[in-house]
Amino acid sequence: MKHPVAYLGPRGTFTHEAVRRLFPETDYQHTPCDSIPDVLLAVDRGEFAHGVVPMENAIEGSVNLTLDWLVHHVDVTLTAELIHPINQNLMTHPDHAQWPLSRFTRVLSHPQAVAQCRSHLRELLPGATISYVDSTAEASRQVAGHPEEAWVAIGPQSSGLLYGLTILESGIQDYPNNFTRFISVGRPWTHRTRAIVGWKTTLLITLPSDFPGALHRVLTSFSDCEINLSRIESRPTKKKLGTYYFFIDAEAGLDHPGIAKAIADVEHWGCQVRQLGSYPCYTFDKIGDPLPVDNGR
């Protein structure tokens, strides 16, 4: 029996690519969900063993919806990280494959994808109207379904293949090192074929309101234990203006002796520490790295 995995859908998105890399279809059943909260809630309720959602993009920054739901709405464990290259493509209906770019009047895509390509769009299609849709896959579906329109979609190659589009321009993101960090949540698991490139522990820290310099104390505790912090980010507690939770990613697993000591020190200063997960990290750093076969296609 295949283990169920929920992911931010639909099929043909970058999250779909990520879930296929993390959870091979030989062992797992992939189920798309309409939103990040839907994925996290489904795992929290035990409806799925695993879930995959985006956490952070190198160009656009953190996915705040993911962070806020992890803090305020669900109690799920982070179980893995995948760093995945994001290669945005300009695609159209095959009937328009030979058209000059100047003939296209509308660009369809998800707001995040458009934001990652804004400078290139101004250069390639300065007169085209931009229309936002729910996902890059939805953009490809609409372009494929309206051959009478002079439309193009922005999205991954997988969405173009899914809906039979032709790629006009590849790699149109404004910055070449465009990667998204995806996380899996739910039950512990081990990737059967991919090598682990490192370990992380994600902590949520609440500072005491009456302790000046508390954040400095927190950072010093990890520094003194020789634990590198790869990310520190604040999110509002939603209880009072000016009060924050701090997400901290430590580049070590919980079995590292320095982690336990640093956490103990932080708690000693009166901070509250919630362990969100200690997990292996994987990376697919080549855009040409082939995806597993999509049996659902």
TrEMBL record:
Q: Where is the ACT domain?
A: 203-278
Superkingdom assignment: Bacteria
Pathway it belongs to?
A: Amino-acid biosynthesis; L-phenylalanine biosynthesis; phenylpyruvate from prephenate: step 1/1
Looking at the keywords, is Amino-acid biosynthesis present? yes
| Gene Ontology molecular function | prephenate dehydratase activity
Q: Which UniProt keywords apply?
A: Amino-acid biosynthesis, Aromatic amino acid biosynthesis, Lyase, Phenylalanine biosynthesis
Q: Does the keyword Amino-acid biosynthesis apply?
A: yes
Q: Which reactions appear under catalytic activity for this entry?
A: prephenate + H(+) = 3-phenylpyruvate + CO2 + H2O
Query: What EC number(s) is this enzyme filed under?
Result: 4.2.1.51
Name all Prephenate dehydratase domain ranges. Answer: 4-187
One short Pfam family name for this protein?
ACT
Q: What is this protein called?
A: Prephenate dehydratase
Tell me the gene name.
pheA
